[in-house]
Design a protein that fits this description.
By secondary structure, the chain is of the alpha+beta class. It has helices at about 55-60, 65-80, and strands at about 10-15, 25-30, 35-40, 40-50. It has one domain. Helices cover about 20% and strands about 30% of the residues. Strands 2-1-4-3 form a four-stranded mixed beta sheet, with no helix packed on it. The longest helix has 12 residues, at about 65-80. The termini are far apart. The relative contact order is 0.17.
């Protein structure tokens, strides 16, 4: 890192995903109201609603909508209803 371009409060900080309890340490200048002790060291804590460990896109648990397949299913299901 280049010297004297980062703010003075650039420090290690803990981010905690509140949906699954996963924590990770990164560096940030974010202001934190709470602290947490990890590995004998007290660090500022930022609580997150969602992170890469709980986001459906990154965990592979997302449902992809197949609009073309839905239209085809509808047409085949109701094709004979109008014919008498």
């Amino acid at each position: 890192m280049k010297k004297e371009i980062h703010p003075d409060n650039y420090r290690s900080i803990v981010f905690k995903d509140m949906s699954n309890g996963d924590t990770f340490i990164s560096r940030s200048t974010a202001n934190a109201r709470e602290t947490i002790e990890i590995d004998g060291e007290t660090l500022p804590l930022i609580k997150l609603e969602i992170s890469n460990s709980s986001h459906p896109f990154y965990t592979g648990k997302s449902n992809l909508v197949d609009t073309a397949g839905r239209v085809d299913k509808f047409k085949t299901r109701y094709a004979n209803r109008g014919k008498k």
